[in-house]
């Protein structure tokens, strides 16, 4: 049984605390970004773009990491949006955000990056001894 894109998408949507309405195309871009990062740092997952599923069954940890990497892509976009909204400086007006939204978003992004790094490390095949 193959693992579908929907299963990874559910993992992603379980991460944001508030209901987020995102266009399907943007969510797919988050997925593509997560998949490419996963495969660059770990190993191939055999994604079939025509069937919109993986060739084999993914482990829960792999699905979780893909969802988390998608969430990181979302947080990076959200962080950029907040920075742009809270730092409006013009000829006649200057608005700078004094709220904590930048700080909280940046902290959430940092936390998710740390968790993703730990998951990547756990999924790597580590060999501390040669079997030669």
Annotation keywords:
two-stranded antiparallel ribbon; about 60% helix; 4 strands; about 130 residues; globular; mainly alpha; single chain
Structure description:
The chain is mostly helical. 58% of the residues lie in helices and 8% in strands. The protein has helices at residues 5-13, 24-41, 60-86, 101-123; strands spanning 47-48, 53-54, 87-89, 94-96. The strands form 2 sheets. The protein has a two-stranded antiparallel ribbon. A two-stranded antiparallel ribbon has the order 3-4. A hairpin with a 4-residue loop joins strand 1 and strand 2. Helix 2 crosses helix 3. The relative contact order is 0.15. The model has no long low-confidence stretch (mean pLDDT 82).
Task: Please specify the SSE layout and strand pairing.
Blueprint: H1 5-13, H2 24-41, E1 47-48, E2 53-54, H3 60-86, E3 87-89, E4 94-96, H4 101-123
Helix pairs in contact: 1-3, 2-3, 3-4
């Amino acid at each position: 049984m193959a693992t579908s894109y929907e299963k990874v998408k559910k993992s992603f949507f379980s991460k944001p605390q508030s209901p987020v309405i995102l266009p399907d195309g943007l969510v797919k871009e988050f997925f593509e970004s997560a998949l490419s990062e996963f495969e660059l740092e770990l190993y191939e997952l055999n994604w079939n773009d025509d069937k919109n599923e993986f060739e084999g069954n993914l482990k829960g940890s792999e699905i979780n990491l893909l969802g988390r990497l998608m969430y990181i892509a979302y947080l990076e976009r959200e962080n950029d949006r907040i920075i742009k909204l809270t730092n409006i400086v013009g000829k006649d007006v200057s608005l700078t955000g004094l709220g904590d939204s930048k700080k909280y978003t940046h902290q959430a992004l940092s936390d998710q990056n740390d968790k993703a790094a730990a998951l990547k490390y756990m999924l790597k095949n580590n060999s501390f001894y040669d079997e030669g």
